[in-house]
């Protein structure tokens, strides 16, 4: 009987073996973590079993729902009027901007600018 020594594994084979071992260990550790329950979770489960009606309601607390149903409160009449004006402004259609003026295309020069209208009131500095 001759004992043959195994050939050394190539680097690729070693990587495959190590990745398989790593994945198996990862699965084992995840299963162990799932079984361990923290003391807080255990206490919470006890309280939920004892008082099932105290769980979170989907719409929030009764107090919050009641406050939201009443509508918005205003600090004073000024706040109320400003909110009312905002609502009117949202309902009014906005005028389309003037398409004849183009801004941002080029840097204006003095020749590009329109002439100033002469002032009706004569300046004291002009003479």
Automatic annotation (TrEMBL):
One Pfam family name from the record? Answer: Endosulfine
Chief site of localization? cytoplasm
What biological-process terms (Gene Ontology) are attached? cell division
Subcellular localization is given as: Cytoplasm
- Chain residue ranges for the region called Disordered: 88-127
Question: Does the keyword field hold Cell cycle?
Answer: yes
One of the entry's Gene Ontology molecular-function terms is:
protein phosphatase inhibitor activity
Q: Which GO CC terms are listed, alphabetically?
A: cytoplasm
Keywords on record: Cell cycle, Cell division, Cytoplasm, Mitosis, Phosphoprotein, Protein phosphatase inhibitor
Q: Which domain of life is it from?
A: Eukaryota
Q: What does this protein do?
A: Protein phosphatase inhibitor that specifically inhibits protein phosphatase 2A (PP2A) during mitosis.
Q: Which family does it belong to?
A: Belongs to the endosulfine family.
* Name of this protein: cAMP regulated phosphoprotein 19
